[in-house]
Write a structure and sequence with these properties.
The structure holds 2 protein chains of 2 kinds. Chain A is built from 5 helices and no strands. By secondary structure, chain A is an all-alpha fold. Chain A has a single domain, classed as Four Helix Bundle (Hemerythrin (Met), subunit A). By secondary structure, chain B is mainly α. In chain B, 71% of the residues lie in helices and 0% in strands. In chain B, helix 3 runs antiparallel to helix 16, helix 14 packs antiparallel against helix 15 and helix 16 packs antiparallel against helix 17. The chains are: A mainly alpha, B mainly alpha.
Amino acid sequence: MSLGMVFAVLGAALSTLFAGMGSAWGVGMAGQAAAGVVSEDPEQFAKVLLLQLLPGTQGIYGLLVTFITLSRIGILGGTAITDTHTGLMYLFACLPIAIVGLVSAYHQGRTSVACIGLVAKKPDQFGKAMLFPAMVETYAILALLISILTVTNIG
Amino acid sequence: MGDLDYVYAVARIRVKEKSLLTDMDISQMTALPDARAVLSYVEDRGWGDAESSGDADKVLAAEEKKTADLMRELKIDPSVFALLSYPNLYHNLKAGIKEICTSDPNASAFYPMERYGREEMLRILGENDYKALPAHMQKAAEEAHDVMLKTRDGQKCDVIIDRACLDAMHEAGRKQKNALLRDYVESTIAVTDIKIAVRALRTGKNISFLKEALAPCNELDVRLLAIAASENEEALMNYLETHGFREGAEALKESPSAFERWCDNRLIATIRPQKTNSVSMGPIIAYYLARQNEIKTVRIILTAKANDFPEETTRMRVRDMYG
């Protein structure tokens, strides 16, 4: 296996690893807050569940980039990489969703926790409460777009 | 525990905060015709339990118990709530010494507490078993008990116990990592020092009494406070107005109850920012203090109604609410 292939696989792994870590943290924190609310007011289950799920998307984005990368570098499809430059390009193409996924999921988790607190006190403000963590999602989507555009246009 | 370990507990507290009394509730209760109507009002809001119906003391005790149970359920560091209960604990010590020394039973003078309530306190003092008290109380309890037995000087006894309470709070607060708790402790010590200074001035105490009674704190220069309080009322008010306690000084000029009200409102203002804090112990402490404040306010209204105080007088005594 060439060094380029090693770099490309590393990039694919980092996408899922970092973005997944961020999502696990965010969903976990929001889950604790959601459990707190439901223990006192079970009627809020559906609302707080949606807020808990929001930081989970980064993990899915990371997984998507990993699949696309693996299907282009000769592991799930495509042609095997033979040179180091191409491998490094795949690695760098995966970094946006890996890093932005991690950071945005962390902050989205914290925002979700705060918004679960908002729903706990004012359930009628759920619509507004959904918007705050959704704003953080914007940056994960931008990173996802750049990673996909770059991965699919290498070579 | 780190701040993020309180996410679950804070979320539960956010739901609980919905049932806190608001300023509007207090205003409505103040306008009610009598104590029974006030009691019905709070019972309609879920206060009390199956056994407390119609009995004001039992309703308030049930609410105290509910708050204590919730804090236990949330697994908050017991040292935090031990610190918050120091004033009640030392109050029970005072009440215990006075009851033992005067042989005048007064159960209502004690705060109901799981530990160191009336029976336990009387047993400890009766048997001179000071080691059964928390370490920070033992020396003061022995000294105050001795003074009361030998001199019957209740004021001296109070000074010893109050000073020990403030010193214990200062020491425990210094060790706390939570900023709200540190602020609460400092604020409590500052307003208690001011109360002592005012009382000393009005009863003509000298500077050595003040130096003995005032506990050091970060918000006040107790040396200057003692000097001002040993001079005259104008000097004391001037000191307070120029050291960040202008509103307190104005409340003092109005009446002692207005000052008590200002002290409690100052505390509520200290905890109010916790409404926007999602991830620390702060909102839980704030909720606990808010519950204590609303129970105290309902007690004030019930007492005022039972004694036929005019509505305007009652209104001037009620506290701001956190809810």
